[in-house]
Design brief:
heterodimer; A: about 625 residues; D-Maltodextrin-Binding Protein, domain 2; 5-stranded mixed beta sheet; 25 helices; 21 strands; B: about 375 residues; alpha/beta
Chain lengths: ~625, ~375
């Protein structure tokens, strides 16, 4: 059966041109796509009224939609730092503005200026005005929020100009997501996702041409537009952009600007990224990877085996700087609560578990938990990392009760239950994985830790943890969690005698899933802590290998926004050095960590120690949450 | 002046100025700095990392100096925990270690400044140890002790050294240099010999054919400029005598001493210091990562930031462990070789004078 054509409604501003380029030129989707242009706010209306299947819609419209919507992965209009086309302008400073006029064309920018005004503790009057009349309102104590191309000409006319993209990123440490392709569930399939990404890829490849033709049209210097396309607007919708949007919704909700905190959910489908051509020299490969280009599996292995420690380190450091140009290294204050040590998986490398029913296995009671949670709050903690053994006596209702009780009594995020625990619950309750996750989310689960990945290779897993979930299941739990809008991390423990290929495959598999879901916020790796476990240590778990693996991961995982260094397992010295080998996050000022402590790692650092280590490596420390939003 | 200009000078083998040393110290890109130091280190030593088998003996912990940075010393001979090792006890320790399998090639002797001991004690100590193991190298008495002997026993520095040399002294350890600056010494170790005196002891030793090491204890009150000046003074003496075997950067350890409220330098600072030292001290062949002080993790990383030596197996080390060092008490040669190999380097056992030794069979049992 021939499908009906996909009707797209796009914004008519300059910044959307790279996104629609492939369609406009008829280079892709000629038989599939029908394209029309309008103002941002009207694009949303086109989807609501059924006139369009998909619209390049401001995310504010996504947030306030009555019906459930989905976002196309990979394509965005976003910024990280100055955006140039979302400006608050006036004759007086922000604090002195009594009225701020809002451009009707963009609800997202309206929300943003309201939020940033609120966070400054200011209470001016807001008034909406038509897009083409906005600049005329400015004068005296009247400022105005202007968006779109008119900002280029208008910004030089006023004494006080605030770039709201820059203002947001300075506060949150995250990108700002303005708009994305959004529609009803089922409106596009995986092939359409590929088409939409192809149109953008063609546009980005021809950015200079677009800049030139529009600069001629508008009679401006072509460099202005080239810079705008190249530096100001970011067209990728990845994990960082989704976190930026989630942070925006959360803050707007707290400020009373947004009634709900909508979950960001993507269409199924995948961003296809072509790796750099084979047969390049190591130097070329490193410089390609430094600029964020994709490495093939074979080239990843080659870099790991052949590049020198310093070449890898310098490339990873440069890539880190590109992703995190502010020179900030983040950390979180949370507490690791291992609620039970009863566990049926009996992994060879674990020193923590007790077989259920052997009389020594324990489960933390509510009183003990309450004390731990209270202490966490008192110490400035914002999150609980809740992981345990796979305890057959605990069903889904136990966790639902636990989460509801925690949420009702403590202002703490729940970062809990690794894929193995989720898989076990699904099996025990005879429910599909998404159903388990949905119930846990409803009870208060905020995010999933990426533990239990060890090496994502079934040969290695059979050897070290035969009863733990296989690679496909681990990835499937993460896929389903991401689809529901949960953010998760991904870990890797190396040093089990895996081959370089198996190690690189681990990275490849999580990178592949990230292309699909953009749900991993961070990658964390460490070397296996052998002491006291059943596995005799025979692999290289040295500082230098850790730094190599970390640097490789920074280069290979081009779609992961954050890399944590693992001071808890590697020690503060190696953790600190890791900040110069690709790491941009110092992990957690953990209040306790039982599992690793049992296996011989006994490092303890306070928030003060962590900040000193971060400063000592030449960075500015900032606290964060699980979205990597600055607090 | 820029990093790349300094790098060019390094590659051309030109000596760096104080300003250039400071520039390197302040260079924000630690990995780039490390890579440059590593380049020089590999030019000098390729992939090799040296280590030796050594026994630590502290003759006494009674010390008049009472430095704020020390956790080891006791003021009075009758204070709790104060000790003086008898010569026969020291010999017994050496003999025990010779029988234990991994026989040391070096005895490292340093102790407190004890006013109540005769000079003959120290001469006899060395003679007895040498008699017990004629093949062994005695690396004994820091410049601070030598200078103290000179004052206490009213003999010239040269005479003190000659007599000790006659009893078997092969080299001097590099300790007590701290920072060679009167301002810093006044603040942290006012009762130790001065900077000039430290230099004079080493100069005299070198003239007599006694080789020595040199150190820098950093992380107390000194500035970056003072650290670089310290390195330049050592480089100047080396240009004059050629008697230094190795330079050893020592981060300050804060526990159990009067400078307690000051935190220890972080790993990044330590690695930076190794790199700068390697680059500035172009005429000192070896840079030692003293693992007891650094901890194994940082020591392993230092092997990529300029260091080519991991010191020894270090039986019975006390001074750093009392100051809170969390490193193991000692390592076997096999463990040392393994640590070096997993850092991506090639272990080479050496003697005190940095002559490579043929591998003993058990060293390969990794």
């Amino acid at each position: 059966m021939k499908r009906s054509r996909l009707r797209l409604a796009a914004v008519s501003f300059l910044n959307t041109r790279p996104i629609t380029y492939g369609f406009e030129r008829g280079l892709v989707g000629k038989d599939r796509v029908e394209l029309s242009f309008d103002l941002p706010s009207r694009c949303a209306a086109a989807v609501a009224s059924g006139q369009a299947d998909l619209a390049l819609m401001p995310i504010a419209s996504y947030a306030s939609s009555d019906e459930e919507l989905r976002i196309v992965p990979g394509v965005a209009i976003a910024s990280r730092g100055p955006v140039r086309t979302v400006l608050l302008m006036g004759d007086v400073p922000w604090e002195a503005m009594e009225t701020i006029f809002l451009d009707e064309a963009s609800r997202t920018s309206q929300m943003l200026v309201r939020l940033l005004t609120h966070e400054r503790g200011l209470t001016p009057r807001f008034e909406s005005v038509a897009h083409d009349r906005i600049v005329d309102q400015i004068g005296g104590k009247r400022g105005a929020l202007a968006i779109g191309d008119l900002c280029f000409a208008a910004s030089s006319r006023f004494e006080h100009v605030y770039d709201l993209g820059a203002d947001w990123t300075d506060r949150a440490g995250l990108p700002f997501l303005n708009a994305a392709w959004i529609g009803r569930p089922g409106a596009v399939d995986a092939d359409d996702v590929v088409l939409l990404n192809q149109s953008l890829a063609l546009g980005l490849a021809n950015r200079d041409e677009i800049a030139r033709s529009f600069a001629e049209r508008d009679g401006v210097n072509v460099e202005l537009y080239r810079h705008y396309f190249g530096q100001n607007i970011r067209y990728d919708l990845g994990a960082a952009e989704l976190c930026g949007a989630a942070a925006f919704f959360e803050r707007a909700h707290r400020a009373g600007i947004l009634k709900t905190r909508p979950t960001l959910r993507l269409y199924p489908g995948k961003v296809q990224r072509k790796p750099v051509a084979a047969g390049k020299s190591l130097d070329t490969l490193l410089s390609d990877a430094t600029s964020g280009q994709r490495l093939s599996l074979d080239d990843g292995i080659r870099l790991y085996q052949s590049a020198s420690l310093f070449d890898l380190g310098q490339a990873a450091d440069a890539r880190r700087r590109q992703l995190h140009p502010a020179g900030v290294v983040t950390y979180i204050v949370d507490r690791n609560v291992n609620y039970t040590d009863a566990c049926t998986t009996a992994c060879q490398f674990c020193n923590f578990y007790r077989p259920p029913g052997d009389g020594r296995a324990t489960l933390l009671g509510r009183d003990e938990l309450a004390q731990k949670l209270q202490e966490t709050v008192a110490l400035g903690g914002i999150q609980i990392l809740l992981q345990g053994g796979v305890n057959p006596e605990l069903g889904l209702d136990y966790y639902e009760d636990l989460f509801r009780w925690m949420k009702a009594n403590f202002p703490l995020a729940i970062h809990g239950l690794s894929p193995e625990e989720i898989r076990f619950l699904a099996e025990r309750e005879k429910l599909p994985i998404p159903a388990v996750l949905e119930r846990l989310v409803a009870a208060g689960l905020d995010s999933l830790p990426g533990g239990g990945a060890e090496i994502l290779d079934d040969e290695v897993r059979r050897r070290i943890s035969p009863r733990k979930c296989d690679v496909a299941t681990w990835l499937e739990v993460m896929r389903q969690a991401h689809r529901l809008g949960l953010r998760t991390t991904a870990t890797m423990v190396f040093g089990f005698g895996e081959s370089p290929r198996q190690l690189a495959l681990h990275l490849d598999r999580i990178r592949d899933l990230e292309d699909e879901t953009a749900g991993f916020t961070a990658f964390i790796c460490w070397s296996f802590q052998a002491e006291g476990t059943k596995l005799p240590l025979r692999d290289d778990t040295s500082a230098t290998r850790y730094l190599r693996v970390l640097a490789l991961a920074r280069l290979y995982l081009d779609n992961f926004p954050n890399l944590q260094v693992s001071w808890v397992t590697m020690g503060p010295a190696i953790g600190q050095a890791g900040l110069r080998f690709g790491g941009n996050d110092f992990g957690s000022a953990m209040i306790e960590e039982n599992v690793v402590a049992q296996a011989g790692a006994v490092f303890k650092l306070s928030a003060e120690d962590i900040e000193r280590a971060i400063r000592g490596a030449g960075f500015v420390p900032r606290r964060r949450n699980m979205r990597y939003e600055w607090l | 002046m820029s990093f790349s200009e300094v790098a060019r000078k390094v590659r051309a083998g030109e000596a760096l100025s104080a300003a250039e040393g400071v520039l390197l110290y302040r260079h924000p890109n630690l990995v780039e700095l490390g890579a440059l130091a590593n380049e020089m280190r590999e030019r000098l030593h390729q992939d090799r990392v040296y280590f030796n088998r050594n026994l630590h003996i502290n003759p006494t912990n009674v010390c008049v100096a009472q430095c704020k940075l020390c956790s080891f010393s006791r003021r009075a001979p009758d204070a709790e925990g104060a000790f003086v090792l008898r010569v026969d006890e020291a010999v017994a320790r050496l003999q025990a270690s010779l029988l234990a399998g991994d026989a040391p090639t070096e005895v490292h002797l340093v102790g407190g400044l004890h006013e109540g001991l005769p000079f003959s004690y120290f001469v006899e100590l060395l003679s007895a140890l040498k008699a017990a193991a004629p093949g062994i190298c005695l690396k004994a008495f820091s410049a601070v002790e030598i200078f103290f002997f000179h004052r206490l026993y009213k003999l010239s520095i040269e005479e003190i050294l000659r007599r000790l040399q006659g009893a078997g002294l092969a080299s001097l350890p590099g300790g007590g240099a701290e920072i060679l600056s009167s301002r810093v010494r006044k603040a942290i170790c006012p009762n130790k010999c001065g900077a000039e005196e430290w230099i004079e002891v080493h100069r005299t030793a070198h003239r007599l054919g006694v080789k020595s090491n040199c150190t820098m204890m950093f992380g107390t009150v000194e500035t970056v400029e003072e650290r670089v000046q310290h390195l330049l003074r050592l480089r100047d003496l080396q240009a004059e005598t050629g008697g230094f075997l190795a330079f050893i950067p020592l981060p300050f350890h804060p526990e159990n001493n009067a400078l307690f409220d000051r935190p220890a330098p972080t790993a990044a600072e330590v690695l930076r210091t190794f790199a700068v030292a390697r680059l500035v001290l172009s005429n000192v062949a070896n840079i030692k990562a003293y693992w007891v002080s650094l901890g194994l993790d940082t020591a392993q990383m230092a092997l990529w930031f300029g260091a080519d030596d991991l010191d020894g197996t270090v039986s019975e080390e006390k001074i750093y462990h009392l100051a809170g060092a969390r490193s193991p008490q000692s390592l076997t040669p096999a463990e040392m070789a393994r640590i070096i190999r997993t850092a991506g380097r090639v272990p080479v056992e050496r003697d005190t004078l940095y002559r490579a030794l043929a591998p003993r069979p058990q060293q390969e049992a990794v």
